[in-house]
Amino acid sequence: MKEFLFFLFFSSICFGQETTAIADTNFEKALINLQLDSILDGVLLNDKVKNTKSLYLLGKSIKNLEGIEAFVNLEELWCDNNKIEHLNTSKNKKLFFISINKNLLKSIDLKNNQLLKMLSCTNNQLKQLDLTSNEKLSFLECNNNQLKSLNLNNNQLITTLVCNHNLLDSLIVDQNPLIKTLSCGNNNLKKLSLNNLLNLTTLNCQFNQIITLDLSKNVALKWLECNKNSIRELNLSGQAKLDFLWCEGNKFNCNALKRKVGLK
After folding, report:
1. In 10 A of CB 53, how many CB atoms?
2. Using an 8 Å Cβ cutoff, are 201 and 161 in contact?
3. Does 149 map to a domain?
4. C-alpha–C-alpha distance, residues 226 and 124, integer Å
5. What is the CATH number of the domain that holds 198?
6. pTM for this structure?
7. Which residues contact 4 (CB under 8 A, 6 or more apart)?
């Protein structure tokens, strides 16, 4: 009798309304806590979430975000500190911000997120990151993954790029002239061409295998960390704004260079 009454109650709510399946119980519990759902039944009423613009799902032990497609007007997604392995936001076309740090992420589908401006996906297991459709991207933080390559040719609006602790053996930023902050330490880089980055103010390329580093065009540079490489010579004659230098562990006298440019 109770089951029958529940069925009648549920039917009266859902009749004539579109629903979306929720596969992960912890995901649905989080939505209930946010008052975006009311019954733990594996079903979400689309009308109840269609106008949601921001979704905060931090540290909820979520493994699967299936059902996220119901949030058709979502602009911000925060889902750090979970156990998510795959993320598909192809139906969330209004997203401009995604933070999915500290998960188990192996794949992320962003091809329909053409409005995306900020992506933070650090401390995951990504081996590939396709950003070819995200031309408005201005902030990318993808450190502590397993990326061997990173194609940024279509991301000409990027101003901040943080990709430390990956497996990158090359990093081409010729098409990204607006970059102000570049942090690519702890990779396998042997060379780094920065001639087009005239706005660069902060550079961290420590713990790589770089042999030569030409900074003659980067006259806005204020902060440089290039320690633990194989750099033979570093010419800083054009860096009048430089106020921090960390260059130990190379094949030139770092202390002598610091004295030469007036840094301690």
Report:
1. 11
2. no
3. yes
4. 25
5. 3.80.10.10
6. 0.92
7. none
